[in-house]
Amino acid sequence: MRTVLVALTLADASRWPELAESASRLGGVAAVLQGEGPGLVDQLDALAATGTKPVHLIGVTFGDDLGPASWVGRVARWWLDSRGPQLELWFSSRPLRGLPEVLPDAGRARLLAPRDSMTNPDWEEPPPVARQVLVCRGVRCNAKGAAATQDALKRALAEAGALDESVLVTVTACCYPCNRAPLVVVQPDMQWLGPVTPDDVPALVRQLTGATNGQEPAGGAPEPTQPA
Question: Which domain of life does the UniProt lineage start with (predicted)?
């Protein structure tokens, strides 16, 4: 049985080289669920081309966000549905934290069946939001505290009843201009705001919720800057 270690989040994908080295040392391969690096579908295609049959899929995270773990199974079921029974896919729903010293046993993994798990009527249209905030998680932004800004922003928008209702928060790779890290971009306003720290979030949320309610944006948020 071949094991595929799957980086779950964008932040996890940034450590793809370490994960790939660890997987190779243990006789497995590595993939990413999102972000840069070889995608899970690409790695499954490659394994199928070599005649591999049983494959054990395990999510890996270096943080606390376990939410994307179920998507490993969803993507794998969609792959089976679209490619046919070229592989026998086993999925361990409990992800690993950090680089493994040994590959986990597949005794508790479940066999996946083909299913179009990537399509849902609820996902046919964009969400009915008025603003989309892109939180940059590029190298400089991550180093300067983008994770704390992202967490504070999502909490504040949720408390205001605006998260995914009138404001959609999306994590991205580099958005530029990097000297303003940590950076957020407000669309469709074409506003590049930064540096935005957790202390700046209350004013930013007032701006966002005021704008979506048809009011003038409140003052106090970081001044917009255009990319260089």
Answer: Bacteria
User: Does residue 225 register a pLDDT over 70?
Assistant: no
CA distance 132 to 137: 16
**Strand, helix or coil for residue 123:** helix
Sheet containing 191-193, strands listed edge to edge, beginning at the edge strand earlier in sequence = 167-172, 131-136, 184-187, 191-193
Buried b (16+ CB within 10 A) or exposed e, 116-143: ebeeeeeeeeeeebbbbbbbbbbebbbe
- What are the tens digits of pLDDT across the range 62-78? 988 777 899 999 999 99
Please return the burial class of 57, using the count of CB atoms within 10 Å of its CB with bins 0-12, 13-18 and 19+: buried
Identify which of 139, 148, 135, 141 has the alpha carbon closest to the alpha carbon of residue 63: 148
Q: What share of the chain is helix, strand, coil (3-state, %, to 5)?
A: 35, 25, 45
| Alpha carbons 111 and 58: distance in angstroms, whole number | 13
Residue 94, both tokens: 């409990």
Task: Judge residue 75's burial from the number of C-beta atoms within 10 Å of its C-beta, 0-12 exposed, 13-18 middle, 19 or more buried.
Answer: buried
Q: E strand or H helix at 115, and its extent?
A: none
